[in-house]
């Protein structure tokens, strides 16, 4: 009986993957657009932490924008010995005409050190159009033009961007990129197509200074793990929408070990479980291979084995559709798909066991409201 239940979940999961492939194939690239009137001047805020692989290339992509208005780039670190400082100096040498500022400020403003870094950086921002983008993001030369065009649309309070995975090096970063391309990205596309997802992602949050002030500034998000989600929710509470242009930026995956990969993915799985419990539980249907394998060992071996093969084939179809649509790397070798899907299933299952997570080498407890508390500290 239980094997049959697992087989049904696996079959539903295969149908889900095919629907996700349909959603990816049905998405169309936006036509080139420009905001009405002159392009706004922009301040890019780049919170940094360490000289991570690909940092120089990612930052360089923001310096190489084909944009018609002045752009200020503010980089920030909280440790005077941070290795990212040397990368910023190299960036200044490579782009001598770029307007690049560096903030080195150890002041802490809450448990979320990235938001604290942004709070330290914000006083140097000279322009009213602010674009917050994580350090591991790389973009195309038309990125700012497309983002500001979307921000100029009526009723838009902020713009965010989908992202695809790019492996920095090694098997673990390849598996991390595959999690983005084969799990995260299609899930968001299905959510957008169905109207169930309302993303606001750290890959890009573009908004005006006035909008940021209207939601209380950055200080109100200094203890939130999912600060990007919380910013989007605050804007929607003001009757504004978060636009998602129909393109994807690049997210560099730098995990160097299974432990790094597990901690990273478990952190985000538990975050999603906290902020979207219904959606997280509903995502059980996105793991057909895991359910098929359980079916195979709990009384339905033939059906389970057939569904396992079907799940792998459906995932490959989905990856090829996404590669065609977003310019992701070619579909990965077949042998990578099963371990990736099994690992994703294990992360999903373990995400329900506890609230502890690790972020940048520190342990935290996740509170019921999505805020963070350093593990071992009293309230």
TrEMBL record:
<dbReference type="InterPro" id="IPR029044">
    <property type="entry name" value="Nucleotide-diphossugar_trans"/>
</dbReference>
<dbReference type="Pfam" id="PF13506">
    <property type="entry name" value="Glyco_transf_21"/>
</dbReference>
<comment type="pathway">
    <text>Sphingolipid metabolism.</text>
</comment>
<keyword id="KW-0328">Glycosyltransferase</keyword>
<keyword id="KW-0812">Transmembrane</keyword>
<dbReference type="InterPro" id="IPR017835">
    <property type="entry name" value="Hopen-assoc_HpnI"/>
</dbReference>
<feature type="transmembrane region" description="Helical">
    <location>
        <begin position="291"/>
        <end position="318"/>
    </location>
</feature>
<protein>
    <submittedName>
        <fullName>Glucosyltransferase</fullName>
    </submittedName>
</protein>
<dbReference type="InterPro" id="IPR025993">
    <property type="entry name" value="Ceramide_glucosylTrfase"/>
</dbReference>
<keyword id="KW-0472">Membrane</keyword>
<keyword id="KW-1133">Transmembrane helix</keyword>
<comment type="pathway">
    <text>Lipid metabolism; sphingolipid metabolism.</text>
</comment>
<dbReference type="GO" id="GO:0006679">
    <property type="term" value="P:glucosylceramide biosynthetic process"/>
</dbReference>
<dbReference type="GO" id="GO:0016020">
    <property type="term" value="C:membrane"/>
</dbReference>
<dbReference type="GO" id="GO:0008120">
    <property type="term" value="F:ceramide glucosyltransferase activity"/>
</dbReference>
<keyword id="KW-0808">Transferase</keyword>
